[in-house]
Every structure is written in structure tokens, then in C-alpha cells.
From TrEMBL, chain A:
Gene name per UniProt: prph2b
The protein's name: Peripherin-2
Gene3D superfamilies (alphabetical): Tetraspanin
Membrane topology qualifier: Multi-pass membrane protein
Family, per entry: Belongs to the PRPH2/ROM1 family.
Keywords: Cell adhesion, Disulfide bond, Glycoprotein, Membrane, Transmembrane, Transmembrane helix
Acyltransferase is among the record's keywords: no
Organism listed in the record: Sander lucioperca
SUPFAM superfamilies from the UniProt entry: Tetraspanin
UniProtKB/TrEMBL annotation, chain B:
Chain coiled-coil ranges: none
Ranges annotated as spanning the membrane: 60-79, 100-122, 257-281
Keyword Transmembrane carried by entry: yes
Family, as annotated: Belongs to the PRPH2/ROM1 family.
Protein encoded by which gene: rom1a
Protein name: Retinal outer segment membrane protein 1a
BP terms from Gene Ontology: visual perception
Keyword Transmembrane helix appears in the UniProt entry: yes
Record's keyword terms, sorted: Membrane, Transmembrane, Transmembrane helix
Membrane topology note: Multi-pass membrane protein
InterPro entries, alphabetized: Peripherin/rom-1, Peripherin/rom-1_CS, Peripherin_LEL, Tetraspanin/Peripherin, Tetraspanin_EC2_sf
Native organism: Sander lucioperca
Compartment(s) of residence: Membrane
GO CC terms: plasma membrane
Length: 339, 344
């Protein structure tokens, strides 16, 4: 006969139980604060995504911040409940009313930990999605820069200018992206001018292309006033060589700049969630000792799991099988999977 | 003639002590907030210190920091005193300390009020400091190779971009200064030679502004050169063009920003002042009502508390005289007895 041994048993007397309850109570409230932190980080991330949504073609996925907000709220609720139970656990009268709920509470916490793990994994993996959305979105932003008279795109110019100034970047990959688009609207081009006519005729699509960038690409740290036009023409400016000039305009592309900003944000949030998982997992073993305070003064046993690991998971799976079978035909005898 | 006499039965005294204890801790936290507000203001002023000619305005945040720290000490002692007040055995040890304590507390509370008044009154000084500082900043914009002025260009550019402003009074200030360094001018070019000869000082002046004056909200790409020449640009009239470059001057923008900050801080500190004053008044009432109990067997009798023992003028004279005596005596030769001014 196999004796069912509890997993990781520990002996507890009253003093130790009191100390444990107090320590647990502190950790629960610490977890509530961490839950609030995760919630506010989720809100912050959502706001940042919305601020830059024009750069991403309004196509960005809000899955991660929404999940963070949900997880933060759940963490607050679960840990506050846990703290209350902990507070009442040393008083047998109060504890009796919580006792029936404990098992389901612990199951819920396990599920919550799984959700936390999923969120952390998503934080790290969704960065690729952000990168791809940025690449596409910035390409379109540069294309629509000149359309300040088209409804729905009026503010693209301002948004892109402010982004380039704030993130100290120019263009999508680099400043040469501006050479391939017409970023000056036809409204401001004198079509009767020969120079303009030459430029427009010089390419197949009839676009007014030039080797210039908008003013927002200018680097204030340059010792000389900004050169934004005729960038590749050394003779157009005194004492200028476009191959060695470094400080004149920003050389970094906006996709790289924005991506590094978002990825550092997502990485730190992911780290915080991993730390939260470790904190939560530490809490649950301690909790089972609170389950049996019938004789308050005597020594009691505490354990991590009531049965061994294998048996607990076996029980869990069989319970889930029963639930699944209940959804099917519910007539006649229930095929009860017994453990 | 006693100022503001009030009767204090035992229960009222107990309530006063308890309320005062809570109030003094609130006032201590407010003192800490005042200190941090002073730190914030000082940091903000230091960020733009390069465009300010003098640091006279720094007296406001410095005073706030001193007052915040003093308030922490004052309120800590206030809470200790009111804790001991209801215990007849422990209260007498504070007897000697209370007079100087009240003098010091009143001084710092008045200083707090002065800081608030100064934050509103120093607008003129700030404005003149900015006027000179910005004028120099614009003049030295091109000197990126002169040690000590290398970063003027970057500072002015960032200032104009952050505060959405251009020039000192407005963008025309850039027309009067040579803001392109000679290092980047081709002196063999006819156009450059003409411009330099066109004015007495031999400066290269043009009707153009740096790129940092450009307004991103403009629907058209930024026009920074030949601003007053309508024919140089297609479909452009500089009299009616509003969104192209920032029209506001940087002095106005900075004064507006700092006055807004100081007004908000001033309003907060005013409420802290009222809180602190109420703490001191309550403490004075508690002290005087407890002093009447001293020596009595029955500590639960009703006593009278007052604010000032003598009228206001005489109390002030009483405090100032020792200070005056100290300063006057050090100047005179002391012989015989100095004519002691009588205070009734």
C-alpha cells in the first residue's frame, strides 16, 4: 500500500504560525502594491501606444496593455482577499467562514500565475509585431507628410515633425527616405518655374523629388546652421562635405529610435511580471498551513501539496475530464473517473 | 490687557491637545512638501540658467527650502510639547524653551509669507534678467568655437523648440544679429560681400531665422530664409502668414512659464502658511491654559488661555529689545548702568 505523503511537509507550532501569518500578511499587501504598479504600467503603455498610433498606421495591437490592466486588477483583488484571509486565520471563529472558499481560491491563484506567465511571454514576443507595424506605419507617414489638406491626414506633418524632434531621428531607415518621396505639396510649388518643371519631368511618376529633408531632421548640436537642402551637393555650400558631415542632421532612422523606446519599455514590464510571478509562487505553499487551525495551540503540519505532485496533477486532470464529459450527454450514468 | 482670552475646561484642553498633535503632524508633512516644491522650482530655474543674466530670482526657492526644513523642526517640537502638555509632571521642563521657541517659529512663519509675496513680486526682476540673458544668447549663437560659449547655439535652439518661441521680443531680433559664423561664409562670393558692405559693422545680416524657429504645425514646409521677401517664395505673404514660424518671443514665453509655476507654488505655500499659523496659535492657547494649572492639586480645573499677555506692540518691543541691546551695546562703551528702557 502506498502511503499518500504530503509534498514538502513542515511542522508548525503556535508561535511559528503567528509569525508566518504576519509575514504572509505583509507579503500579500506588498503584492497588492505590485498589482497597482502593473495596472498603472499597463495604462501608461496604452497611452504611449495611442500617442504614437499615427506612426503605426493606427494598426497597433493593444493586446499587451489590455492584458496588463486586467492582470493588475486581478492581482490587487486576489492578494487583498488573501491578506484578509491571512489576517483572520489566527482567529478560529473568523477563519471558519473563509475555510470553504480556500480551495477554490488556491486554484484561482494557480490559474492567475499561468496568466501572468503568458503576459510575460507576450511582453517579450510582441516586440516583433511592434517592429513590423512601425516599419509599415512610418513608410506611410512619410508618404502622407505633404497631405496637410486631406481630411484624416492633416496632422501627419505635425506628428512626424514632433516625433523626429523628440526622438532625434530622421526618416524611416535613415534620412535618404526623404529623397524618395515628394514631401512638398503641389500647392506650394510654382509649376511655371523651369526648375520645378525639370524636376517633375525627371522621374516616371512626375513627383517633385529633391535631395532635401524637412527642418525637423536638423540637429541642434551642430556647430553650423542647419543645412537641409542640396544635401548631396558639396559645392552648394561653403566648406561642406556630405560624406564626413556628422552633426548636421540626425543620422538615425525613426523606426530604430521608436522601436528601442518601446522595446525597453516592454522588456522592463516583462521583468517586473517575472518578479511578480516569483513573489506569487512563494506565497502559496505557506498558505496551506492555515487550513487547519481546529486546535489552535497544538502543533500542526504544513505542506506544499496535500498529495504528491503526480497525484495532484492526476486529480486535476480527472476533474477537468469530468467537467468536459458533463458538457456532453448528461443522461444516464455519469462516467465518473475515480482517483 | 490680555489679547484674546478664552476659557478652557479640562475636556476642551484634552481635545485641543489631541487635535494639535494631529495638526502638527499634518503641518510637518506640509513643511516637507514646501521643501520639495522649493527644490522643484530651483531645478527648473537652473535648467534655463544660461539665458538668465543674474540669479536674483533664486531667493524664492532658497527661502522655500529653508522654511520647509524649519517647519519640519517646528512641528516636530510642537507635537512633542502637546504630547507632554497634559502630563503635569512632564510639562514644566518645556517652560524655559517656550519663549525662544515661539519667537523662532513666528519668524519662520512670517518668512514663509514673505516667500509667497516675493514669488509674485519678483516678476520684474525675472523679466529683466531674461531680457539681458536672451540678448546675449542670440548674440553669441554663432560662437560655437569660442570656449565658454560653445553650447549657446544648442541651448537657444532647444529653448526655442521646447517653448515654441523665436528670438527675444520676437523673430525680428534674428535680423539684427549675425547668427551664421564667418567660418561658414564664402567671402569670395559676391552676395556675401554685398551684405557685409551694406552695414557699418561689417556683419552678415539677413532676413532669415534659425531652423529652431520653425513651427511644425505649419501646413507648408518651413520658410526660414528671405522671410520679408514675398516674391522669393510661391504663394507667400509674410504679413498674413501666421503658422510658418513661432511669432511669440522667448522672453514672454519663459516669463509666462515661470510665473505660472511660481503662482501655483505660491498658492500651495499660502495654505501651508495658514496651517502653520493655526498650529502656533493652538499651541500658544494650550501653553497658557496649562500654565494656569501648574501648582494646583486638581489638574481638571477650568483655566483661562490667552494669546498674548500684553498688547501686540509691547510684546514685539519686549522681544526686540534684547536683540537691540545686544547690537547697540557692542557699539558703545559700557560705563555705569545703561538706561534700561522700562517695559510695563
Amino acid at each position: 500500500m502506498i502511503v499518500k505523503m504530503p509534498f514538502m511537509p513542515v511542522k508548525f507550532n503556535l508561535q511559528k504560525r503567528v509569525k508566518l501569518a504576519q509575514g504572509l500578511w505583509m507579503i500579500y499587501w506588498l503584492s497588492v502594491i505590485v498589482g497597482i504598479l502593473i495596472f498603472s504600467l499597463g495604462i501608461f503603455f496604452k497611452i504611449e501606444l495611442r500617442k504614437r498610433s499615427e506612426m503605426m498606421d493606427s494598426n497597433e495591437s493593444h493586446l499587451v496593455p489590455n492584458l496588463l490592466i486586467l492582470v493588475g486588477l486581478m492581482a490587487c483583488g486576489l492578494n487583498a482577499f488573501g491578506g484578509k484571509v491571512c489576517h483572520d486565520s489566527l482567529d478560529p471563529m473568523k477563519f471558519a467562514k473563509w475555510k470553504p472558499m480556500l480551495r477554490s481560491y488556491l486554484l484561482l491563484c494557480c490559474g492567475f500565475n499561468g496568466l501572468l506567465l503568458l503576459t510575460a511571454v507576450l511582453c517579450f514576443l510582441m516586440q516583433f509585431a511592434v517592429y513590423l507595424t512601425l516599419a509599415e506605419g512610418l513608410k506611410n507617414s512619410i508618404k502622407f507628410y505633404k497631405d496637410t489638406d486631406t481630411p484624416g491626414r492633416c496632422f501627419m506633418k505635425r506628428t512626424l515633425d514632433m516625433t523626429q524632434i523628440e526622438f532625434r531621428c530622421c526618416g524611416n531607415n535613415n534620412f535618404r527616405d526623404w529623397f524618395e518621396v515628394q514631401w512638398i505639396s503641389n500647392r506650394y510649388l510654382d509649376m511655371s518655374n523651369d526648375l520645378v518643371k525639370d524636376r517633375v519631368l525627371s522621374n516616371v511618376e512626375g513627383k517633385y523629388l529633391m535631395d532635401s529633408v524637412p527642418f525637423s531632421c536638423c540637429n541642434p548640436g551642430s556647430p553650423r546652421p542647419c543645412i537641409q537642402h542640396h544635401l548631396t551637393n558639396n559645392s552648394a555650400h561653403y566648406d561642406y562635405d556630405h560624406r564626413i558631415e556628422e552633426l548636421n542632421i540626425w543620422t538615425r532612422g525613426c523606426r530604430e529610435a521608436l522601436f528601442s523606446y518601446f522595446s525597453s519599455m516592454m522588456n522592463s514590464i516583462g521583468m517586473l511580471i517575472l518578479a511578480t510571478i516569483i513573489l506569487e509562487v512563494r506565497l502559496h505553499p505557506q498558505h496551506t498551513t492555515m487550513e487547519d487551525p481546529e486546535n489552535p495551540e497544538c502543533e500542526s503540519d504544513g505542506w506544499l501539496l496535500e498529495k504528491g505532485v503526480k497525484e495532484t496533477f492526476g486529480e486535476l486532470f480527472s476533474k477537468m475530464k469530468i467537467l468536459g464529459k458533463k458538457n456532453q450527454v448528461d443522461e444516464g450514468g455519469d462516467a465518473e473517473a475515480t482517483t | 490687557m490680555v489679547v484674546m482670552k478664552m476659557k478652557f475646561p479640562f475636556q476642551k484642553r484634552v481635545k485641543l491637545a489631541q487635535g494639535l498633535w494631529l495638526l502638527s503632524w499634518c503641518a510637518a508633512i506640509s513643511g516637507a512638501i514646501t521643501f520639495s516644491l522649493g527644490c522643484i522650482l530651483k531645478t527648473e530655474l537652473r535648467r534655463r540658467a544660461e539665458v538668465m543674466d543674474n540669479s536674483d530670482i533664486h531667493v524664492v526657492p532658497n527661502t522655500l527650502m529653508i522654511v520647509g526644513l524649519a517647519s519640519l523642526g517646528i512641528n516636530y517640537f510642537a507635537s512633542k510639547i502637546c504630547q507632554d502638555a497634559l502630563d503635569a509632571g512632564r510639562f514644566p521642563r518645556w517652560k524655559n524653551m517656550l519663549k525662544p521657541y515661539f519667537a523662532v517659529s513666528c519668524f519662520f512663519t512670517v518668512l514663509m509669507l514673505l516667500a509667497v509675496i516675493m514669488s509674485f513680486a519678483m516678476k520684474g526682476s525675472l523679466e529683466s534678467s531674461l531680457k539681458v540673458g536672451l540678448r546675449n544668447g542670440i548674440r553669441f549663437y554663432k560662437d560655437t568655437d569660442t570656449p565658454g560659449r560653445c553650447f549657446q547655439k544648442q541651448n537657444i535652439d532647444r529653448l526655442q523648440m521646447d517653448f515654441h518661441c523665436c528670438g527675444n521680443n520676437d523673430f525680428r531680433d534674428w535680423f539684427e544679429v549675425q547668427w551664421i559664423s564667418n567660418r561658414y561664409l564664402d567671402f569670395s562670393s559676391k552676395e556675401v560681400k554685398d551684405r557685409i558692405k551694406s552695414n557699418v559693422d561689417g556683419r552678415y545680416l539677413l532676413d532669415g531665422v534659425p531652423f529652431s524657429c520653425c513651427n511644425p504645425s505649419s501646413p507648408r514646409p518651413c520658410i526660414q530664409f528671405q522671410l520679408t521677401n514675398n516674391s522669393a517664395h510661391y504663394n507667400y505673404d509674410y504679413q498674413t502668414e501666421e503658422l510658418n514660424i513661432y511669432l511669440r518671443g522667448c522672453r514672454e514665453a519663459l516669463v509666462h512659464y515661470y510665473m505660472g509655476l511660481m503662482n501655483a507654488i505660491g498658492a500651495g505655500v499660502l495654505s501651508v502658511f495658514l496651517l502653520q499659523a493655526s498650529v502656533l496659535v493652538s499651541l500658544r492657547f494650550l501653553q497658557t491654559s496649562m500654565e494656569a494649572v501648574a501648582g494646583n492639586e486638581n489638574t481638571e480645573i477650568e483655566t483661562e488661555g490667552y494669546l498674548l499677555e500684553k498688547p501686540l506692540k509691547e510684546t514685539i518691543m519686549e522681544y526686540i529689545e534684547p536683540v537691540m541691546k545686544f547690537f547697540l551695546l557692542t557699539n558703545q562703551v559700557e560705563e555705569g548702568t545703561p538706561g534700561a528702557p522700562a517695559s510695563t
